């Protein structure tokens, strides 16, 4: 815990007046945080699974034993500084944390934040402990830059400004390029640029903002292709009353149609393809800034005026509903533009006397003055959930105090890409504390994401976070002074603080957990108002909800930002290489919180591992299905559920929320309109949607056109003729008796002498019965297919999970429940004849393997994972007259690809430009689980 020492208290404690005294939260006096953990050395070797090339290699790195392989890989490859293979290269997490933390402590001492050297030491130890134990993380620029010889840039989010002059427009290109070069993103509003319907001072007609977007888009694409590790992240905003708004709305939809036409004409229009560069406006997110006036006109069916940029007079009247329909239709077609609610944003603006909020960063969570920036940090919410299922609100508040103090200190030494950004940021000191793992937290506590209880807990935690942050900001103002722009905006800042506090009082709680958190939040807001009235505030903004992409992986979070779980199954990387499919560890924790016994939990988890969802899981009550609803899959959360969650937490954020509302492919334009309309009604600041499969361009597979200048080779027509490889007269075989749902039968399987299944016979039903005859014919067709070279794993993927009677319990300890006889037979064959890696992709494990996985997940025993993988492998079983790759089941290398296997269709996500893995959604951006690359803020 920390406290600000007043004059009398300072004199009693012998400390300087008004400086911070620190108390320990996690650490013990006399014991360094590094001495409390067990360290181990690991080798980090990261490859592109598509071509086997090594992307990164560093051996002998040092990490705590409880850090996952994935977190180790991400931090080593992304954040360790120094040339790989040299003595100056960082090789331990200690070095990384010390480099950052000691820089913060030194700046805090230099700028007189702490009362005594002992308080600075406590601050150092607490910050170190929380980073070491993945309680929170700073945003990526901190890890990239702080403590190095590079400029000390700590911000990931930037907002630029552009005026209606050619000098300003060209300067926009330059500033944006510098920000992209550094790996960050920026947003801006183009509404000051006069429309193509207005005249220039020379008498000619203006080009309009959309034309200038072409140059900026080309610049972003060029800088990205010049060696950046991720696509340029940018946001372009246009006000709804701009005369060119209709052209702006339709820019990306028209380009999407161009992609369709060119693709059908034979051009390479894949993402990253050789011809995709002819498509414009693809490097930015677009958003239309709508006013309350416009939305009321939509609501009432009225007309709305488009205004001159130079005179402000109405130069054209349009039907508001028609314009709104065009906006929704374009979003339905290509996911752009999003929508930003201007009056709501500026109603919560703490500094209106210094200028309006006109734009956001690329991911839409940071919104403040033009030419400003925001540095971010995110807490791992699951770290505050006790074994008893109680969220530790008091410790959470204490952690927020320390983190906000560190974030404010960083502005004292930070560098910025442009002088206007540096000036505004130092004057207003905008911060963006947030969190990750909300979806996992709600599931672990037995709350459905789309439920009143879930929203109440999320709102209470968000309110507590921001209330504590502003209380600490008010205390810092008493130590080192309020932000420079406070005096001019004092009345507005206090008004917004009261709005936050009033919203907190309106939170309706449903359970002891959210009631306890809301109670602490109320205390924090009361203190923030009282101290702020006396001291002012150190920071104009305090909180946002960012995507938490790469840093979410660093903290081993199951879910990013405000998002629910993507799916119930995911990939876990293993020490020594490889990966395995596991059920999210939050699931058994949730089941126990709902009152299920260990045996029931085991059966339900086994069902999820096999099916990817909870529908018809043995013993799971239907009223609990909703707790396990995810962003995608069999039971996906409705779009309105995402909007309601955003609305629950928005009143407690200084900024906004990075989140895209996913909609099914069958969604209509009217449904998109309704989502955008409800966002306005519910008080959101920004909203974007993505309709499944609305994008034409697909990810480019590695190696395409590699030897032909990027052009596709002419297809060669080759006729393949399968050759049957018959079994010898004497061959090894085995017979398995089985029972499924009370029906008894026998499975006879014969193999080639050099290994590999070649025939099956199934006896089921009485001799001469229809069932027996059908099974004989079925067995014959499968056997012939195997002998002609059809892989067993193909049959397993097709026949497992088929559902018909008889079904139910079996007498096989490895396959306890079967949805049909065929489901049992092919899972049994997979266990007997397929190697571990292929079975892992199909989600089929023996009882011993499942027990070992659980033990590995919870650290209860030593597990020989290598022994698990040394199971039966199959040799090639057939030859053909032409060399032809053997057909294979689709492989999965990420949680998104695993979900594709369960859904049976492709997910709309790009391939990572660095390692080739399919990325997953993270807020309004995408995140690569393989190497940590993101398509936006992190």
TrEMBL record:
<feature type="domain" description="Ribonucleotide reductase large subunit C-terminal">
    <location>
        <begin position="155"/>
        <end position="690"/>
    </location>
</feature>
<keyword id="KW-1015">Disulfide bond</keyword>
<feature type="domain" description="Ribonucleotide reductase class II vitamin B12-dependent N-terminal">
    <location>
        <begin position="44"/>
        <end position="134"/>
    </location>
</feature>
<dbReference type="GO" id="GO:0000166">
    <property type="term" value="F:nucleotide binding"/>
</dbReference>
<dbReference type="Pfam" id="PF02867">
    <property type="entry name" value="Ribonuc_red_lgC"/>
</dbReference>
<dbReference type="InterPro" id="IPR000788">
    <property type="entry name" value="RNR_lg_C"/>
</dbReference>
<dbReference type="Pfam" id="PF08471">
    <property type="entry name" value="Ribonuc_red_2_N"/>
</dbReference>
<keyword id="KW-0560">Oxidoreductase</keyword>
<feature type="domain" description="TSCPD">
    <location>
        <begin position="728"/>
        <end position="832"/>
    </location>
</feature>
<dbReference type="GO" id="GO:0050897">
    <property type="term" value="F:cobalt ion binding"/>
</dbReference>
<dbReference type="InterPro" id="IPR050862">
    <property type="entry name" value="RdRp_reductase_class-2"/>
</dbReference>
<dbReference type="Pfam" id="PF12637">
    <property type="entry name" value="TSCPD"/>
</dbReference>
<dbReference type="InterPro" id="IPR013678">
    <property type="entry name" value="RNR_2_N"/>
</dbReference>
<comment type="similarity">
    <text>Belongs to the ribonucleoside diphosphate reductase class-2 family.</text>
</comment>
<dbReference type="InterPro" id="IPR024434">
    <property type="entry name" value="TSCPD_dom"/>
</dbReference>
<dbReference type="InterPro" id="IPR013344">
    <property type="entry name" value="RNR_NrdJ/NrdZ"/>
</dbReference>
<keyword id="KW-0547">Nucleotide-binding</keyword>
<dbReference type="GO" id="GO:0071897">
    <property type="term" value="P:DNA biosynthetic process"/>
</dbReference>
<keyword id="KW-0170">Cobalt</keyword>
<keyword id="KW-0846">Cobalamin</keyword>
<keyword id="KW-0237">DNA synthesis</keyword>
<dbReference type="GO" id="GO:0031419">
    <property type="term" value="F:cobalamin binding"/>
</dbReference>
<comment type="function">
    <text>Catalyzes the reduction of ribonucleotides to deoxyribonucleotides. May function to provide a pool of deoxyribonucleotide precursors for DNA repair during oxygen limitation and/or for immediate growth after restoration of oxygen.</text>
</comment>
<dbReference type="GO" id="GO:0004748">
    <property type="term" value="F:ribonucleoside-diphosphate reductase activity, thioredoxin disulfide as acceptor"/>
</dbReference>
<protein>
    <recommendedName>
        <fullName>Vitamin B12-dependent ribonucleotide reductase</fullName>
        <ecNumber>1.17.4.1</ecNumber>
    </recommendedName>
</protein>
